[in-house]
Structure formats: structure tokens, C-alpha cells
TrEMBL record, chains A, B:
The keyword NAD does not apply. Coiled coil: none annotated. Residues 8-103 form the HTH arsR-type domain. The lineage of its organism: Bacteria, Pseudomonadati, Bacteroidota, Flavobacteriia, Flavobacteriales. InterPro entries: ArsR-like_HTH, HTH_ArsR_DNA-bd_dom, HTH_MetalResp_TranReg, WH-like_DNA-bd_sf, WH_DNA-bd_sf. GO terms for molecular function: DNA binding; DNA-binding transcription factor activity. Keywords: DNA-binding, Transcription, Transcription regulation. PANTHER family: REGULATORY PROTEIN ARSR, TRANSCRIPTIONAL REGULATOR, ARSR FAMILY. It comes from the Bacteria. The keyword DNA-binding applies. Gene3D superfamilies: Winged helix-like DNA-binding domain superfamily/Winged helix DNA-binding domain. This is ArsR family transcriptional regulator.
Amino acid sequence: MGASKTHIFSTTHNELAQIAKVLAHPARVAILEYISRQENCICNDLVDVIGLAQPTISQHLNEIKKIGLLKGTFEGKNLCYCINQERWEELQHSFNAFFTNINYNCC
Amino acid sequence: MGASKTHIFSTTHNELAQIAKVLAHPARVAILEYISRQENCICNDLVDVIGLAQPTISQHLNEIKKIGLLKGTFEGKNLCYCINQERWEELQHSFNAFFTNINYNCC
DNA sequence: TATTATTATCGTAATATTGCAATATAAAAT
DNA sequence: ATTTTATATTGCAATATTACGATAATAATA
């Protein structure tokens, strides 16, 4: 078929996978890092910095937004994207919990 | 086009994305968790537990193997998959570094 | 109001992923 | 040697993702 059978998996597993999917593209990793480093939060140079077309950047931003990682406000004529700190820490904890819960019983 | 332009991104960003991609499917998250919980490391019931066809499970295992997360040895007639502890901790550190390096300058 | 600058959406093509039936392979048991 | 049991590979169909040109929407500026 081709579509993921999400309904046969637990909510926890689906949620972790969904978050990982957002980080599963180098452009989105780069975008997150870049936004976090901008002091003034003016992000209209993302297109130049990343090197993808403007509609593509917009799509990637939308994927990041979907899991609640971005807050956007207006500052003059430019849209200002910032990282949602609370959500970011939430995701960090989810990942960390997953990583630390794995134990190594054999081999 | 459709293919990711990996060449325009840094090695760090590409590697993190590649790892995230493996975790970006609930079946693979579930598989990793299940394997880690099996004391005797006999994993031939993965097909029943996860609920996907045997070739599909095999493919997912292969994706996990590709990033070095699995060690496999034989025990009797059954193939025994275990988590590669060193690699696992390596990935945990990569993710943690990424998460903690992000700062929140604005908004 | 017209222009300019910036971001969003639409439409579409190329590529990747997911899933499984059929089949192959490998090792143990009969 | 043949059967059984478990995993891997192949081939293919369905769906998802990635990317961008064209265009729309939005807001500041002239």
C-alpha cells in the first residue's frame, strides 16, 4: 500500500515518530538552529541562508509549526519566527525518556 | 524534483536528520522498545507483536541496522537482535546536544 | 492608491517510503 | 534427504515527501 499503519501503534510511539519526522530533514534541522541563533528574530533571510526556494522554506516552516515548535509574531513588515521554549523542552524530555528507557539485556 | 538536497547541508545536520528518519516511524520505535525489553533476546515474535507482515518487519529492522543500532548474533535457530549500546548512547548524546544548544532569544 | 517586500498557497513533477505477496535462503529437526 | 521454521530479498502498487514556478495574500512605504 504505502501509507503508515499508524492505528496499530500506541499514541506514545506515534507521537515520538511524528516529532522525529520533523527533525528527519536537514533543512528543518538547519532552520531550527538558525532561528535559535538570531538575536533579533528577523528571519526573512532564511531563503538565502538555507539555499532552498522560498516556497520550500515556507513548507518546512509549516512542518515545524505543526508540532508546536514555532511561535510567530510580526515586527514591522517581517514575520518573526521564534522557537517555542516550552514545547521545545517538552520534546527534549520525550526523546530523553525514550533514549534512557531502553535497556541492554543481552549480547 | 522531490529528492532532498543533502549536499547543501552540513554533515552534522545531515547525520542528525538521518538518525531522526529512522525514529520517524512508529513501527521502528516500537521495535526498538520491544527488543530492549526482551531478556533472552529472542526476537522472532516481532511479527506477531508489532502486527505487520514479515517482510515489512525485516525492512524496518534493516533501516535500524543501517545506522548501527543493532547487533545480531545467532542463538540456536533464531537470529538474535540486540541493541548496540555504544551506538545508542552516541545517538542519545547527539540528540541531547542538539536540543540543549538551541537558545531562545526572542518573543 | 500604486509600489515594493515578504510570506503563503496552488499545481505539478520527481523521488522516497511503506507495505505485502511471492519467493529465496539458511539452519535446525525429523 | 526432506520437512519445518525463521529471516531476507524481489517486485510492485499505493501513498508521502520534497522541491519549485506561478500566483495570491498581506502589510509597509512612497
